[in-house]
Amino acid sequence: MPVEEDDEIDGVAEPSKKPGVTKTAKVIKGMVNKVALSGDQVLADALYQKASETGYYIWSIAWTCKNIADNRFHIDCVAAFSDSIKADQLTWDVVRKWQYKPEDPDVEELVKMTDQERRQLVALVEEAAFRAYAKVQK
Fold first, then answer.
1. How many CB atoms lie within 10 A of CB 54?
2. How far apart are CA 15 and CA 36, in angstroms?
């Protein structure tokens, strides 16, 4: 099963209703309409935590997974709400499967996916999305 390796998130400003944060949220919203973070564990990143406190939220995310059984293989995935303001109709997909070239480990090359493999990978992404959603609902 793939594991999360790298994240990149985009957020849209929505002012918080919490007392004391509204003024700060308005100032930040006036300066920033989109935040992009990359790296491991972006939800724990101090910038994301501060943005979250002031009303920003994740509406689009792209990440790379590597295969635990064979870490040469990777897949790139995306998930996003179709409406970034209402945050509804979440969709996700597996964008591509790739590996580093054996003769040149700094160069990526695409790996063909069968339709069945693509459906299985999308199902794994869906399962992971619902598990993550359940965690944040607690």
1. 21
2. 18
- The answer to whether the beta carbons of residues 92 and 119 sit under 8 Å apart is no
pLDDT digit string, tens, across residues 87-126: 788 888 999 999 999 899 899 999 999 999 999 999 998 8
Q: Which one has a higher pLDDT value, 7 or 119?
A: 119
- SS3 sequence of 68-126: CCCCCEEEEEEEEEEECCCCEEEEEEEEEEEEEECCEEEEEEECCCCHHHHHHHHHHHH
d(CA 100, CA 18): 47
Kindly list the domain boundaries of the chain, sorted by start residue.
Answer: 2-137
d(CA 58, CA 81): 9
The pLDDT tens digits of the residues spanning 34-68 come to 667 777 777 778 888 888 888 877 888 888 999 89
Q: How far is CA 78 from CA 21, 55, 83, 86, 125, in A?
A: 31, 22, 15, 19, 9
DSSP 40: S
